[in-house]
Amino acid sequence: MRIALGVEYAGTHFCGWQYQPHSRTVQDELQKAVSTVANHQVEVFAAGRTDTGVHALNQVVHFDTESVREQRGWLLGINANLPKDISVNWVREVDDDFNARFTAIKRSYRYLILNRLSRSAVHHQRMWWHHHPLDIGRMRAAAEQLVGRHDFSSFRASECQAKSPIKTLDKIAISKQGDCIAVDVEARSFLHHMVRNLVGVIVSIGDGSKPVEWAGEVLRSADRSRGGVTAPPDGLYLVDVRYPSEYSLPTVSGFPVLW
Fold first, then answer.
1. Averaged pLDDT for residues 118-135
2. In terms of Cα–Cα distance, which of 52, 50, 144, 53 is closest to 101?
3. Do 63 and 43 form a contact (C-beta atoms < 8 A)?
4. What pLDDT is recorded for position 255?
């Protein structure tokens, strides 16, 4: 049978999602835990790879097994064998045609920025601390220029393996509560470092380093060297992955404390 999992993790002490023989990764830790419960070697497949330091609230994965367990048994058994910075939130049996990566129709990320003069002890490595004041109006005006179907070569990491830089960005929403700013981004799929590079450009405009129209200029240039800084991984969260309704997979509540 095929099993889908909703996985949450703090990426600070992982070298990303994907297995690496000599590094600590989320995939490796999860595979070991699932294999222990299944009582055979299991390979898990994710909706998307996350980089070193990037977090997830609802990374969706699937694996195949001949072992029969109740959903509660899978959930409690896997979590008992996971480190404290990874947790499985839900378990569902799915049809064999389900694929965590290729069946997904929408991925949502949130980037969190702490915008104040003093650094945070509590949010260290959970948000990007940016001490220069940010203008939300300028950031929103910059973001509007990036929504839609475009060539996002200017926001693509050099090591990106995607066949095409053409992507459709469905949403960029920017909100603020107190000293915290959230950049919410949605698309079917993203290029490597695309969200962090988008945030880097938007923040450079928000703090006045660049004019608002620079966002469109960077986009049209299709040249990564024009794109400015890459925002650090600390503030980036894979919030949710959505699938066709027939799979009836659960969603999770993102950031109930902050918003």
1. 94
2. 50
3. yes
4. 56
Helices (H) and strands (E) in the chain, counts: 5, 10
Q: Which of 28, 51, 85, 223 is catalytic?
A: 51
For range 87-112, the mean pLDDT: 96
pLDDT for 112 equals 96
pLDDT > 90 fraction of the chain, expressed in percent and rounded: 88
Size of the chain, expressed as the number of residues it contains: 259
Determine the residue type at 161: Q
Q: What is the CA radius of gyration of the chain?
A: 19
Dihedral angle of Cα 109, 250, 60, 90, to the nearest 10 degrees: 130
Residue with tokens 């419960």: 37
Rounded to whole angstroms, the Cα distance separating 144 from 201 reads 12
Active site residue 207: no
Q: What is the pLDDT of residue 228?
A: 84
Query: DSSP secondary-structure letter at 229?
Result: P
Contact 167/87 with Cβ under 8 angstroms? no
* Single pTM value for the model: 0.94
**Inter-helix orientation angle 71-80/26-38, to 10°:** 130
